[in-house]
Every structure is written in C-alpha cells, then in structure tokens.
Design goal:
- It is a single chain.
- By secondary structure, this protein is an alpha/beta fold.
- Helix content is 49%, strand content 15%.
- The protein has helices at residues 19-28, 41-50, 91-100, 123-130, 145-149, 163-173, 186-195, 197-208, 213-233, 238-241, 244-255, 260-269, 274-281, 286-297, 305-315, 321-331, and strands at residues 12-15, 34-38, 52-53, 57-61, 66-70, 81-84, 107-110, 115-116, 121-122, 135-140, 154-159, 178-183.
- The strands form three sheets. An eight-stranded mixed β-sheet has the order 5-2-1-6-7-10-11-12, sandwiched between helices. It has a two-stranded antiparallel ribbon with strand order 3-4. Strands 8-9 form a two-stranded antiparallel sheet.
- Mean pLDDT is 93; it is low at 1-5.
C-alpha cells in the first residue's frame, strides 16, 4: 500500500494518449514524472519531439516530465499506479495484455467512461474477472478535458471498496487544479458515467434544431428523472445518482459545448448520418454505445420516453427529428 506522497516509489503510467489521457498527464505531471502510453511508436516519437499531442490536444505544450512511449515498453510493478484512459470497448483486450505481460499486481485507476454493453459489466468487474489481485479504483465526475487542459479547476470522485487506497490516491494525485471526494459505490459510479451521455445527445439535438435554454432545461429535467429510473433499476445508490459523478457529470456533459456526446447530437440534427456524425466528432461517443444497451432495458417496461426517443433518432430512420423530439417532450407529464 502507498503510504504518503513523499514516499511514493512507484511509477504513474497512463494508458491512452487521447484527449483525456493526455489531459490527465498534463495535470498529474505537476507533481510526478508521467509515462503516457500509446499504441504507436511513431506517435510517441512525434509527441516527445514536438512536446505536443497535435491530434488530441493541439496547441498545448507538454512538460518534459511527460514521457510518451509505446505501451508495455517497461514492466508494471506492484507499486505502480496505472491509469486507464481508453475507450471502454477496448478494456477486455487491455486486460488480456496485462495478463500476457505478467502485470497482475498493481494499482489500477479507471478513468474511462463506459461498460461492456452486451452485459452491462463495468470496467472494474472486467478487470477483477481476470486480475483479482489488482487494487482497483475509478475516477469519474464533471471533468471536461479541454477545461482542465486550459488550467481551469475541477472536482471528481475517486471510488473504491478499499478505503486506504482512496486516501493514498488522493495524497498522490490531488493538486491545485483537481480535487477529489470519495465513494465506495464503484459499479454505480461507472454505470452513471456511461449512462449520462444519452441525455447530452438530446441537448445536442435540440441545439442543432435551433432550440435554446427553454428546451435545454426541459431535456435536462426529464433526462435526470429517467437517468434516476434506470440507475435505480440497476441498483445504483441514490447518493451516487445525485452526486457529482451522477447528476453533476450529467449536467456538465449537457451544458458543455466541448462534450463529444452533445456535439454528436448537434450533428445528427444538422442532417449528418449516425456514422458521419461519429466520424466528424473524431472521438469515442459513449452515449451511442449506451443507447444500444438501453434499448434492451425497454423490455422491462421502464418509463423512459425521452431516452427511448433518442435511441430511435440514433438508430432508426426518423424523418422529422424536430417533431419526434417535441412530441416526446410534450407527452411527458408529472
């Protein structure tokens, strides 16, 4: 177990050199040397040479204590903190790579937002299924990467069943720009992070249709109600639903123009197809994957008309998106 920041002898490795992974490296390098892992050696060489991730975080210089390298270039030790910042659909493959590289005892901090959509298996459950000796925590909350990269403050949730681990991670990782609160509801935190993107897609659609705050307010209000309905059905604690990793992250994702889910919804309303919109966003849009899962939950007769409307717009050939959305909003009462 890590005792104090000053005695931390392990490495901090971030797997994933995308927008979020690079932003985390930028934040955490204020106190530590950071190893930022990518899948491509050429990309690593280019970032190390230019000190800029031109693809994911253009215009922001990276300090020299961020070392970019191809993943698994060095051995993962027991004391190391490995921060996972890759799309959730790649988690199973990463777990297999950990196993192959004999990395089975370390501290894993999940910073990705998603679940295995065929089973609703969370990242924590996926890792534990094959690497039971890994100490695990999850990081989630209202953390728009662009704002943090610009030096603006944020507060997130660290979740783990291991209380001493939470205290240690806070001591090691917290700084003037990123603060933490604690939770023990690991699965709830991860399910909420995956779910909230659907509501942000709805706000993006209304934005693309030319609507403004009157409709945004309706969508967030009704969306939060349906978010709660789904979370309660999945057994998530009420404190998580209304905490900063639940309602807080949902609202932030809805109101931020830097939200990839909101951008995707706006593009749909502007006439782009689903695939065209995903390509134009250029990053993982977790709300789209989650929509496929929520479609299955409709079989349980949950009252989620707004979420059902959004899944129809995403996956079906809806001719009049404006009418579909307004008819749905006007049909909701109480």
């Amino acid at each position: 177990m890590i005792k104090k920041t000053k005695s931390f002898s392990g490495k901090i490795i971030i797997i994933g050199s995308g927008n979020w992974g690079t932003t985390l490296a930028l934040l955490l390098c204020k106190k530590h040397k950071i190893y930022l892992w990518t899948i491509d050696q050429n990309e690593a060489d280019e970032i190390n040479k230019t000190r800029e991730n031109k693809l994911s975080l253009p215009g922001i210089k990276l300090p020299v204590n961020i070392i970019v390298e191809k993943k698994f270039s060095r051995k993962i030790e027991t004391e190391d903190i490995v921060i996972i910042a890759i799309p959730s659909r790649k988690i199973r493959q990463l777990v297999d790579e950990f196993y192959k590289n004999e990395a089975n005892k370390f501290i894993a901090l999940n910073a990705s937002k998603g679940v295995k959509h065929s089973t609703l298996m969370t990242v924590g459950q996926t890792i534990a299924s094959k690497l039971p000796e890994v100490k695990y925590a999850s990081l989630s909350g209202p953390t728009i990467a662009k704002e943090l990269a610009e030096g603006l403050p944020a507060k997130a949730v660290l979740a783990s069943r291991d209380i001493p681990l939470l205290v240690s991670l806070q001591q090691i990782l917290e700084n003037d720009f990123l603060k933490f609160e604690f939770s023990r509801d690991v699965n709830g935190i991860e399910l909420a992070a995956a779910m909230k993107g659907l509501i942000a897609i709805a706000v993006g659609i209304s934005d693309g249709l030319g609507f403004k705050t009157n409709i945004f307010g309706l969508i967030i209000t009704y969306g939060l109600r349906e978010f709660r309905t789904v979370m309660e059905f999945l057994g998530v604690q009420t404190s998580t639903v209304y905490g900063i990793a639940g309602m807080g992250d949902l609202i932030t994702t809805c109101i931020s123009r830097n939200s990839r889910n909101r951008k995707f919804g706006k593009l749909l309303a502007e006439g782009y197809s689903r695939d065209e919109a995903l390509k134009k966003v250029g990053m993982e849009v977790e709300g789209v994957s989650m929509a496929k899962t929520v479609q299955k939950l409709a079989k349980f007769n949950l009252s989620i008309p707004l979420i059902s409307c959004i899944t129809r717009i995403i996956f079906e050939d809806v001719k009049d998106i404006k009418k579909e959305l307004l008819d749905t909003l006007n049909s909701i009462s109480g």
